Amino acid sequence: TVTSDPAGIACGATCTASYPYLTVVTVTPAAAVGSAFAGWTGACTGTGSCQVTMTQARSVTASFTLRPAGIDTPGIYRASDRSWYLKNSNAPGAADLEFPYGDPSDQAVKGDWDGDGDDTVGIYRDGVFFLKNTNEPGNADLVIGFGAAGDIPVAGDWDGDGIDTIGVYRPSEAAWFLRNSNSAGAPDLAFTYGLADETPVAG
Questions:
Q1: What's the rounded Cα separation, in Å, for the pair 32 and 64?
Q2: Cα→Cα distances 109→57, 95, 165, Å
Q3: 61 vs 35, 46, 55, 149, CA distance in Å?
Q4: In Å, how far from its chain's centre is CA 17?
Q5: Residue 181: pLDDT above 80?
Q6: Which of 48, 60, 112, 113 has the largest CB neighbor count within 10 A?
């Protein structure tokens, strides 16, 4: 979809709009799950932000491409140097990506937090998730309080919408608490499964 600020364009449904002379219109693309924004043509070019000043009729076209189905590959979080070592193939050899993120006592988690088709890293610290939308160092894109000390983080697409979301497994109770959005709040799903103090997996 493509939307505008000031409001007026919401394409799919509404792809043209009229604005006063000299209005600066910002046009924003949003790719559907499984697709990616490929770039602008017309009054804007490239893949960056698109702003047009209405001195005359303007036309911009947003192009999107389908993302190929991804292949999951291994990675490790090394607490001793606070770094991630990620592979782009299921084979031995050096890491394809190496970057620091997290603290030695953090628990590692990964998922496609924004539905763009790429799994990215996250950490769980004292009942708080710190999630990245890119596999690189820097501040968390999402900071979400969920769970309690002693919980083990899990992630998965619990509702089939194409976005991985957070959850925790509570070993003392063999209890699962899952959210359908990457936000704080009560669990959308809560149930017991397994025995106390087992190792959770999701997939």
A1: 9
A2: 48, 18, 11
A3: 16, 11, 18, 49
A4: 31
A5: yes
A6: 113
Average confidence (pLDDT) over 128-137: 96
Give dist(CA 170, CA 168) in Å, integer: 6
Q: How far apart are the C-alpha atoms of 141 and 124, rounded to whole Å? A: 14
Residue in 121, 105, 109 with CA at minimum distance from that of residue 167: 109
What residues contact residue 84 under an 8 Å CB cut-off, 6+ apart? Answer: 75, 76, 77, 78, 97, 98, 99, 100, 101, 102, 108, 121, 135
pLDDT of residue 135: 95
- CA 54 → CA 12, 13, 201, distances in Å? 22, 22, 54
123 by DSSP, 3-state: which?
A: strand
Tokens of 46: 């490239």
**pLDDT score, position 7:** 93
Chain segment 56-89, per-residue pLDDT in tens: 999 999 998 876 667 889 999 999 999 999 999 9
Q: How many CA atoms are closer than 13 Å to the CA of 176, on its beta-carbon side?
A: 20
Q: What is the arithmetic mean of pLDDT over 179-192? A: 96
Of the candidates 177, 172, 189, the residue with the CA atom closest to the CA atom of residue 147: 177
